[in-house]
Design brief:
9 strands, 3 helices, alpha+beta, Porin, single chain
């Protein structure tokens, strides 16, 4: 009887275990909506077309000094989740950068410099799709204003003095002394963007992604005072970017 009791208990235990294993595992709860905010330091590498700017410079005896190497831009960004739409957040971003070159005419001693600055500030609209724990996919668009400044300088190499600048102001010779011109283009900015965000800590993470900076509706001015007409539409700061960011907040 002792062995029969043990055998019966074993059969009941085995049957119960088998039944428990066959029961379906209840589905995981749906991902809870994200709340809070993120923000931090942002960098971008802008691949803008320097060809049209070099065409302008080559007509001014500078040749084609600007390379098509990406323009390094840095700034900041931040966004907060809103509760109206799940995992949707609204924020802002601002980045700027520059590149420059110089050409010296050995025969005349005239030095010509150019600096191209690009940047923008925009409102960001983003939707976050959780992929796995600590890793999210983010898609969205940035809308704002920005543009480029083309700063050209020409110097005859003479020492710059207060009275010398006074003489230049009263001179009818436009080539005397040191002169600077700033050609500024203002644009409406639209930037579709996709990226991945990984939180290596509960409150800190990184972002890696790509964007396209589109620019439209340009207006150009010389030294922020005089309108510039007939600027080719190809002269702008548009182009693809690679984006990197270090963020803190709630992921």
């Amino acid at each position: 009887m002792k062995y029969l009791s043990i055998l019966a208990a074993s059969v009941i235990l085995l049957s119960t275990t088998t039944q428990a294993q066959e029961e379906p595992i209840p589905p995981r709860r749906a991902q809870m909506a994200k709340i809070g905010a993120v923000g931090g330091f942002t960098t971008s590498f802008l691949f803008m077309d320097m060809g049209p700017i070099n065409d302008f410079l080559s007509g001014g005896k500078m040749g084609r000094p600007l390379s098509n190497s990406p323009v390094f831009m840095d700034g900041g960004s931040g966004a907060a989740y809103i509760m109206i739409i799940k995992n949707f957040r609204v924020g802002g971003i601002g980045v700027a950068g520059s590149t420059s070159a110089s050409v010296l005419d050995a025969a005349t001693g005239i030095r010509r410099d150019v600096t191209v600055k690009a940047g923008y500030g925009a409102v960001s609209l983003e939707y976050v799709v959780p992929i796995m724990q600590h890793l999210d996919f983010v898609g969205g668009v940035q809308l704002g204003t920005g543009g480029i400044d083309i700063i050209v300088r020409k110097s005859d190499g003479a020492s710059i003095t207060w009275t010398g600048e006074q003489s230049w102001l009263g001179s009818d010779n436009g080539n005397a002394g040191t002169t600077t011109r700033t050609l500024s283009g203002k644009f409406f900015i639209w930037v579709p963007t996709v990226c991945f965000e990984y939180s290596f800590l509960g409150w800190a993470g990184v972002r890696v992604g790509a964007s396209y900076v589109g620019m439209s509706s340009p207006s150009w001015q010389l030294d922020s005072n005089y309108d510039i007409l007939n600027v080719p539409t190809s002269v702008s700061g548009k182009g693809w970017t690679i984006n990197l960011a270090l963020l803190v907040g709630t992921f």
